[in-house]
Amino acid sequence: MRVLAVFSHPDDEIGCAGTLALHARRGDAVMLVWLTYGELASQFGDQRPEEVARVREGHGRDVARLIGGTYRFLGFPDAGLTGGREEALAVARVMAEFKPNAVITWDPEDVHPDHRATYQATLSALKLVRIPKLVGNAYREPIRLFHYYRSEVRRPVVSVDITPVMEVAESVFEYYRAFYGWAYTLEAFRARRAVIGAEAGVRYAERFQVVAPQAPALPYLPAPGDPRRE
Q: Does any domain span residue 194?
């Protein structure tokens, strides 16, 4: 597979670091894309945005190395994302080049406007990537879109067993936690993934929702093997 992760700022990818590492370890191609450098992060105090951008680009480089993937920054302004055409087109051009089978991004209802805009731009890119006049060599193969879990969003849930690569997920989290001095602990991070894992019948898991049409109502519960179960 070829797995693309599209987020707003470095550290947004913490929620899928295990899944990305799992695919990379299997030999799949993995790419992380951030629409901004996160140059307005308050933890940097009065540092100039361009100085912060250089630091955070280093974060992206280091995390991509930990996960086993490649990375790219698209350079849109932090706290200025709209989910509009230019952002969607930039993401679509990455898709046309990378040719992903699966894309992971933010959920559509997150409180941060950049996060919601990133979801919208990524969703729109799935259409734009198919248009040669926009992206050059269009990519028309099926792409499955996954977003971070949101309980109020009614979409199918997919859990990924990250137990074999939990140490990588922890390394990514700890990398950021140590730099920013977060109060949220590694133990709490591990416990949350254990809760998701317990619900899915494994030790540790990450959870997403897949953008797919709601299944039609059936007259009866489907029997095992009935194709309508999917």
A: yes
pLDDT in tens, 132-151: 999 999 999 999 999 999 99
Pairing of strands 29-34, 144-148: unpaired
One-letter amino acid of 224: P
The pTM score is 0.92
CATH number at residue 152: 3.40.50.10320
**Domain-embedded: residue 119:** yes
In a domain, 77, yes or no: yes
Using a 10 angstrom Cβ sphere, with 0-12 exposed, 13-18 middle and 19 or more buried, the burial of residue 171 is middle
What range defines the domain where residue 119 resides? 2-212
pLDDT digits (tens, 9 = 90+) for 59-107: 999 999 999 999 999 999 999 999 999 999 999 999 999 999 999 999 9
Contact between 32 and 69 under an 8 Å Cβ cutoff? The reply is: yes
